[in-house]
Amino acid sequence: MGTRVQDKVVVVTGAAQGIGRAFAHRLAGEGARVVVADLNGEKAAAVAAEIGPSALAVVVDVSKDESVDALGSVVGDTYGRVDGIINNAAIFSTIQMKPFWELTTAEWDVVQTVNLRGPFLIVKALLPLLKASSAASIVNIGSDAVWEGRGGYLHYTASKAGVQGMTFGMSHELGEFDIRVNTISPAATQTEVPRATVSPAQLEAMIAARALHRVATPEDLTSLAVFLLSEESVFITGQTISVNGGKLHR
């Protein structure tokens, strides 16, 4: 594919399936050493095996300090630095759509814990390793659901709005260390993972509303991720970039 991130150490959370798996494969194809980090150790190991010796599978629960700290220890002992992070792990495909007034506190909390606390804990734990890099870059995965204001999963939308706010704040606090932070904001993207959040009729309506009338795939996101993790984007930080096929114009 190329060598735009040759020998960079990149941690991808939620990398065992879906968009995260696509990120891991694309980065490896561009020369990166990829840490396939996921709660599902068996699937993470399978993805690492698909990639080959440039990948390392690590089990992590992004919502728990001790698990994230353990990830940092493994990556530090193995590579000594982190050049990039893709904060992709999130709860979405299993969400049952419902009005917000029907959400339980437990449903709200678990989504916030994984989707919002997770990226915070990952960056915090890996910060010493990011500082050891000459030009580190963090890519947070947001969602265009924030801009659409769609109903049915307010807890998810709120969590992804928080991710964008985190990007803005982190970019300023980490700029002095030459660490860049940006958000990729996808529209609904079709993967191999079954999902309860979009019905066939809703997906058809989404496609019709796009300037580019087709389903979005994980591969539509991977080139942008490589760009943001590479030296080609050294003066881009604090930005949210939508990948939505022209559904929204901002």
Automatic annotation (TrEMBL):
Annotated CDD domains: SDR_c
Coiled coil (residue ranges): none
InterPro entries according to UniProt: NAD(P)-bd_dom_sf (IPR036291), Sc_DH/Rdtase_CS (IPR020904), SDR_fam (IPR002347)
Signal sequence region: none
Keywords in alphabetical order: Oxidoreductase
GO MF terms, alphabetically ordered: oxidoreductase activity
Family per record: Belongs to the short-chain dehydrogenases/reductases (SDR) family.
Name of this protein: 3-oxoacyl-[acyl-carrier protein] reductase
